[in-house]
Amino acid sequence: MSKSIFRKKSVEKILHDVECGFGDGEHPGTTTSQLKKELNVRDLTLMGIAAVVGAGIFSTIGEASFQGGPGVSILFVITAITCGFSALCYAEFASRIPVAGSAYTYAYASFGELIAWIIGWDLLMEYAIGNIAVAISWSTYFVNFLEGFKIHLPRYLYTDYFTVFSAHNDVVNFTASHQLSKITDVMRENAAAWDSAPGIGSLKLVANIPALLIVLIITYLVYIGIRETKRATNAMVYLKIAIVLAVIVIGFFYVTPANWHPFLPNGFGGVMKGVSGVFFAYIGFDAISTTAEECERPQRDLPRGMIYSLVICTVLYVLISLVLTGMVSYKELQVGDPLAFVFAKVGLHNISYVISISAVIATASVLLIFQLGQPRIWMSMSRDGLLPKVFSRIHPKYQTPSFSTIVTGFVVAVPALFLNLTVVTDLTSIGTLFAFVLVCGGVLLLPREEAARGKFHLPYINSQWIAPVIYIIVLVICWNKFLGLFSAENVHEKFPFFLFIILSTVLTVLAVIKKLSLIPVLGLLSCFYLMAELTYDSWIRFLVWLIVGLIIYFTYSYKNSVIGKEADAKTK
């Protein structure tokens, strides 16, 4: 069994299955079972920008600028290079295996079925939780945008049920115990929303309606075709970039060069404190790899789209960070919405409306790209028999994964309507990094002769001597944290860093012995480090999700695996 759970799907078979229309369990071998090819390099680049540049970057820049000062612009360049290691590995895989499954399909070819299932299951969690959080965030930005025009929605129409229910109970309990000082303004407003909400009997009708509506609209767009999705994405990205550039240009007229001195007020260490948040500002480029089967020239255009989008986003991030730190002192930037804050500081209060529009558009475009990606993961896993065939059903008219798209909309819309899931958003971060790890590792495992299939190739740089030097540098930087591993305090909290030390040590030894290619090695090391920066609770939630996935694999997927059935048929 140990061999069968790690059975690999050859690149030849992956490409042959797609060419034969194997993607639809109901109409195999027909043109209606294939996705429609509509995307070129411009579309892919814009999709990458749409996925990466979300509204959250504005708050990320504020916190990072507070820690590192004007030098945070250097951090964006460093992080782009670091993130670029993973992007280049994705690009090579996308060129070799231009199939919709993204990291799932790449893992199937390089690690085998069990690891492919794990990463597929992980991606489903990453996209679902990420989209729920984005939908809830979009609702907040949309309500703020309406309030800028004096349009006020009742709070019970844009707040989740459990938040207002908890606030109502807290206010009642604090009032009864004469602890009125513990009742905050937000708590009071949420309790009032509960009291004013209509109801059916004892059931209060409280739900996040804007979050539901945006998910339904986006899901409909994704359902009716890649052409419509492409047009909507392109329009939003053009508008988003225009607004961001306008903000940058206007802001430069209010820059005071003295605010850029000292450039590194807290040294290089201060700059690096914001590395985790800034790294996650780049996450999203991987989602466009799920559109491989809808590209006109995937082997050429997918790598270009990923790299171009990463470069453009880096330029925008650097310019925004320079504007922010030039308009006001970096010491004032530890605020939730730094862009609105700095423009209000210089008397341009009306710019906040423009920023609100940008936030609404930016968040909607992120949601669109990830709602586009998740159904294609369902579809790819269904093709291989790891999920029921219905998930790979292709709509005969729209040529989209119809059932998977509907399921994705339901999975995102219902929780976004009733729940506040900000507590578990770290799951998205750890899930993404885990995918990056497997893609970087997969490039090292896949035979180099397979690279001849693709039109993009990673340059081979021998890591035999470079990897140990980098390992020692990282160990020196983290020396105090390393010594902390030997103390008996908060042992469980040290688990992520302990795992990082083990994995990076093993990888460095392998790099020396096997003379591994440097770029994937650097991608692995950077991802290991960032995973170690996440909390222990995030790891526990992640492991619980993986255990649930393994139960499903061994009870359903293992028995229904297509290549497993083919292997059994050959032995009979």
From TrEMBL:
Ranges that cross the membrane: 44-66, 72-91, 205-225, 237-255, 267-285, 306-330, 350-373, 403-421, 427-445, 465-483, 495-513, 518-536, 542-558
Statement: the UniProt record of this protein carries the keyword Transferase: no
Keyword ATP-binding: no
Organism of derivation: Mucilaginibacter oryzae
Alphabetized Pfam families for the sequence: AA_permease_2, AA_permease_C
An MF annotation (GO) of this entry: amino acid transmembrane transporter activity
GO CC list: membrane
Compartment(s): Membrane
Domain Cationic amino acid transporter C-terminal: 518-561
Annotated membrane topology: Multi-pass membrane protein
PANTHER family tied to this protein: CATIONIC AMINO ACID TRANSPORTER 4, INNER MEMBRANE TRANSPORTER YGJI-RELATED
Predominant localisation class: membrane
Keywords linked to the UniProt accession: Membrane, Transmembrane, Transmembrane helix, Transport
UniProt superkingdom: Bacteria
Protein's name according to its UniProt entry: Amino acid transporter
